[in-house]
Amino acid sequence: MPRKPLVIEIPALGALDAAPGEIGRRLAEALRGAILKGELKARERVPSTRSLAGSLGLARGTVSVAYAQLVAEGYLEARIGSATRVAADLHRLAISDATDARRKPAPRRPSPPATATANATPPATSAYAALATRLSALPSVPFSIAVPEGEVAMDHHWHRLSKRIRATPAAAPSGYPDAQGLPALRTALADYLRKSRAVDCDPEHIIITEGTQQGLYLAAKVLLQAGDFAWAEDPAYSGLTAVLEDRGVQVQRVPVDHQGFNVAAALQACPQAKAAFVTPSHQYPIGMPLSMARRIALTDWAASHNRWIVEDDYDSELRYAGQPFPAMQGLDRERVIYLGTFSKVLAPSLRLGYIVAPEALVAAFTGARALIGRGSPLSEQHVIATYMREGYFETHIRRIRSLYGEKRQILIDALRRELPALRIQPADQGMHIVLWLADDVAVAARAQAAGLAVRALSPMCHATPPLSGLMLGFGGYTAPQLQATVKKLRQLLS
Ligand SMILES: Cc1ncc(COP(=O)(O)O)c(C=O)c1O
Questions:
Q1: pLDDT digits over 288-315, tens only?
Q2: Do the record's keywords include GTP-binding (predicted)?
């Protein structure tokens, strides 16, 4: 039978002018994916380096380096004088080969030499290593998002309290903290969330986390098992999609339109989903709020089918055209898991956030939180609790809301002046603006090389063709900083 030609898709290889090392890395990733999906079977011959390099238009050395990496990881086997093949015992790793493996037991093979065993890394190792890049933070320069510097930095009350509280015996180093979080902080938060976010909660429903990223991870752990289906928006925060992939969840991406997450499309595409992960106040990354009709449709679905809604409320306090939108959790405290964070209104480096869990899930979330770290540092929790209780937190939010509103306008004005042909996504909250333009990955790479901190939107999309645009944060940067950086962007684009 003629051999089916091997088609290798290299993610984001659009930037063929990327450094050879980067192209080799993506090629290795594509081959790894093809092996794991069963498109390349155990023992199957892979094309020679010469022919693959020729068909992909790459240097032969680039392909050789990618093959060598996969040999080291145990995906491929290379023997002198014979063709490179997919490793013989890979059916134990590849999910799609699992049935095959059950049907015919693997022939006994001599044990590999000890050094080869030590060098072969399991697939999870390379998947986690890839996350180090995918989730890496941008430097604190324009247009990096959530950089609380300058005028929007924490005020003198914070510094004064911080010093005072840390010196008290309560905040001194002691035994293990309560994994659910400091009761005083949970009380202050419950008061704030009821009043400012319309969240229906008591301190007992709150679990302190290391930020929303951990809240998403805990939600996926507590609510879902490997193989379960869940809905996620398209586009979506990469920190969420990475969590769901890590947990082995089958993700149904759901398009968003001017009303946000399309509930009808979700129900049609994947009615068996057990949970929906949404950003109702401010869709990430585009920015529209979820309409009331859709909120009701989503909570009706959750209530009538015993499903869960995970509400990521990452930056809703920062609305400029009016009051922040109320949280969805207020519509159904039994089915909505609310995730909040101090990252946007105080600082991401604090690594503190919170979950408001339905009563029935509080113990499970607390247990899962204990499992991944035993709880959050106590002294920081004491400081925030006092900052909130003494009223400084709400004053700080009012102050930064007005400053961020001004910075946002400065950025919009500069973009309209320097890049009048490009469209800006209308949105009235948050800490970034979406600028629509073509070839976002290539533009972002060029901008980063020139010292600008920008993120491309298309890697967050599942649909094809993906949306293409840049996320530009206005952070705590000054007007001259923002204006000069927009000028640089214009030069890059011309
Ligand atoms: C939509 C969204 N969810 C969650 C997070 C993570 O936030 P945290 O710093 O609280 O972990 C971010 C961070 O940018 C985000 O944009």
A1: 999 999 999 999 999 999 999 999 999 9
A2: no
Arithmetic mean of pLDDT, 311-327: 93
Task: Report the separation in Å between the CA atom of 278 and the middle of ligand 1, taken as the mean of its atom positions.
Answer: 12
Whether residue 379 sits in one domain with residue 249: yes
The residue range of the domain holding 408 is 397-493
Domain identity same for 287 and 188:
yes
9-13, 92-96, 444-448, 489-493: segment of lowest average pLDDT:
92-96
Which of ligand 1's atoms lies nearest the C-alpha of 284?
Answer: 1
Looking at the structure, do residues 444 and 487 belong to the same domain, yes or no?
yes
Domain identity same for 488 and 427 = yes
Ligand 1 neighbourhood includes 237 CB (under 6 angstroms)? yes
Output the CA 135–ligand 1 centroid distance in Å.
11
Q: Is the pLDDT assigned to residue 201 strictly greater than 70?
A: yes
In tens, the pLDDT along 16-44 reads 445 666 788 788 888 887 777 777 888 88
Structure tokens at 375: 């709880």
Q: How many whole angstroms from 342 Cα to the centroid of ligand 1?
A: 10
Q: What are phi and psi of 483, to 5 degrees?
A: -65, -40
Q: Is the CB of 212 under 6 A from ligand 1?
A: yes
- For the chain, the straight-line distance linking the first and the last C-alpha, in angstroms and rounded, comes to 52
Residue 87 CB neighbour total at 10 angstroms: 20
Confirm whether 3 is domain-assigned. no
**pLDDT tens digits for range 245-277:** 999 999 999 999 999 999 999 999 999 999 999
Do 243 and 119 belong together in one domain? no
- Using CA positions, which residue lies closest to atom 7 of ligand 1? 212
Q: Can you tell me the distance from the alpha carbon of 398 to that of 389, in angstroms, rounded to the nearest whole number? A: 16
With a 6 A CB cut-off, is 209 part of the ligand 1 pocket? no
Answer yes or no: is the C-beta of 238 below 6 A from any ligand 1 atom.
no
Looking at the fold, whether 341 and 434 belong to one and the same domain comes out as no
